[in-house]
Fold 2-deoxy-scyllo-inosamine dehydrogenase.
Amino acid sequence: MKAVVFERYGETAEVREVADPEPVEHGVVVRVEATGLCRSDWHGWMGHDPDITLPHVPGHELAGVVEAVGARVTGWRPGDRVTVPFVCACGTCAACAAGDQQVCERQSQPGFTHWGSFAQYVALDHADVNLVAIPDDMSFATAASLGCRFATAFRAVVQQGRLAAGEWVAVHGCGGVGLSAVMIAAASGARVVAVDVSTGALDLARKFGAAQCVDATRTPDTAAEILELTGGGAHLSLDALGSPATCAASVNGLRRRGRHVQVGLLPSPDGTTPVPMARAIALELELRGSHGMAAHTYPGMLELVRSGVLRPDLLTTSTVSLDAAPAALAAMDTAGGAGVTVIEPWS
Ligand SMILES: [Zn+2]
Ligand SMILES: [Zn+2]
C-alpha cells in the first residue's frame, strides 16, 4: 500500500510503498477512505509525542470500510462503514469498566502508538470496543472528523464543559477542534466568543455561530477583552489551541465559578504549564482536561449530525491526495490555518 512515512522528526515525510497491515486477533484492518489533518499529527511529526517510534506513519482521524477482521472479532465484518475514536481502548481495564474508554489504561492510538491512517489501510485494535458504525448517508470525509476534532470538541463542550443554553463560552484557538467547539456551543444555545490570530479562522467562527470574535494579534490582553464582552467573564472557556498563553488567557477570562476545559495539547519543554491557580482559588474556578470521547457515547452526537443540527461537513475546507499530504503536514505550523484539510488516500 501507499503511505506517508517520516524517518526523522521535522523532516519532510515521503509517500512510499510499504507492507499492507494484517489484523491482530481482536483487531481489524480498515481501508482508509478519508483521514483528517490535525494539529496532533503535526506535534507528532515535530517529535513532541513520546509514544512515536521511527519510521512512522501519522494519521488518527479516519473513516473507511472494514477490509479484514481478526479471528476473535464478533461485531464487525468486511464491508462495514466505520470510524473510530483516536483513543482506542482495551475494553478490560478499570477505566474501561467504568465507561471511561477515553482514558483507558492500556489505550492505543493510530498514528501515535502504531502506524496511522495517512495510508491506504490502517490496523485498529480491539475492534469490538472501538469501532463506530457510520450512517450510509454520511460521507467518509465528514465521518473522519468524528474520530478526533469533532468528537473531542463535543466531549469538551457537552460532557466535560456541561454547557447550558444562554451561557457565555470562550473558545481560544479556532483550528479544527476550536471551530467544531464554536459550532457545537452555538447549536447548544450558548453565546460564543471566538479567539484566534487568523482573520480567516475568525470568519469561519462567525459563520459557525460565534457572537463575538477577538483577533489576538490586535488585542494583546484577550482575557480582559472577554471579561468586557461577556459582562464579567465566560461561564465556560476552552483552550482549543494548547499553549501557555492561551491556557492562561482561558482561565483569566472566566467569571466566578467558571469552568476551564483544556483540550489543546501542551508540549511544554519541561513537561509542565503554568496556570493562574490564584484565580482558580479566589473565584472557585473548575479546571478540567478533555481527552477524545468514548465510542459508546457517539450515538447522541451522531444523531445531532444526522438531523443537521451539527454540520461537521462545513468544517472541511480542502481535500487533497496522499501525495499532497507531506506538504500539508509541514504547512501546519503554530500559526494554524483556516478550516480543515481532509486526505483521501485512494484519490
Ligand atoms: Zn486530532
Ligand atoms: Zn482500557
Notes: The mean pLDDT is 95.
